[in-house]
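User: Need the bound-state model for hypoxanthine:
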Amino acid sequence: MTLAFIGGTGLTRMDNLQVQDRLQISTQWGAPSAPVVQGELASRPVLFLARHGDPHVLLPHQVNYRANMAALKEAGASAVIAVNAVGGISAHARSGVIVSPDQLIDYSWGRDMTFFDDRSGPVTHVDFSWPFDAALRARLAAALDACGADWVNGGCYGVTQGPRLETAAEIQRMERDGCDIVGMTGMPEAVLARELGLPYAMLSLVVNPAAGKSDTEITMAEIEAVIAAGMGQVCAVLAALVASD
Ligand SMILES: CSC[C@H]1O[C@H](OP(=O)(O)O)[C@H](O)[C@@H]1O
Ligand code: HPA
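Assistant: Bound-state model below.
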């Protein structure tokens, strides 16, 4: 099994990854955000892709999710762990906590969200009742526990369009809908993985209280501080995960 990691905001490069090659892959859907990094983590072969480019230049709606997922598949990925920075909606989704969501709701729009839209093949509707792979999430849970992480097993990730953050009313609506955390990149990434038959799970680091959930303005400085404190542990969890293979 070759695990692929997609690094998001705060994880453009993985410090604990031994880089062997940077694969320039072009796909029929265009170029991925960055070269696919081929390397070793805990002495196991892994792949890594910077979702927003390296350096981080792409906004969430500018990411070519189809090219990213197709490039990982072509590079030999057999499963994908996506790392995300998210805002916390539920009380237990405090800043610094890691969430492994088990559901999502998609509020994004206008993104290329399927590989099956060229009209040459059969009409395809994939099952997406459970967007995250249960076996991969179980392995992730063991790695999170082994690392002593402060983490939450399950929850609903709401995907907004961005790049602006949400209004307090939008977050209240998302809370009524059942969202626990909010980010801008979970879709169409998750469904494209499903269409390619790639097991997919997320590791979401809560980096701020979502809009209206604290008395203060959400600042990039606050977000960067939480990322600086927490992304090292996320990388350690990924190493523990591959070591368990
Ligand atoms: C205020 S930071 C917003 C930015 O961070 C998240 O990125 P990612 O999911 O790639 O970690 C969020 O989705 C936004 O793109
Ligand atoms: O509050 C947020 N909203 C949407 N995406 C995010 N990514 C980090 N924090 C947030």
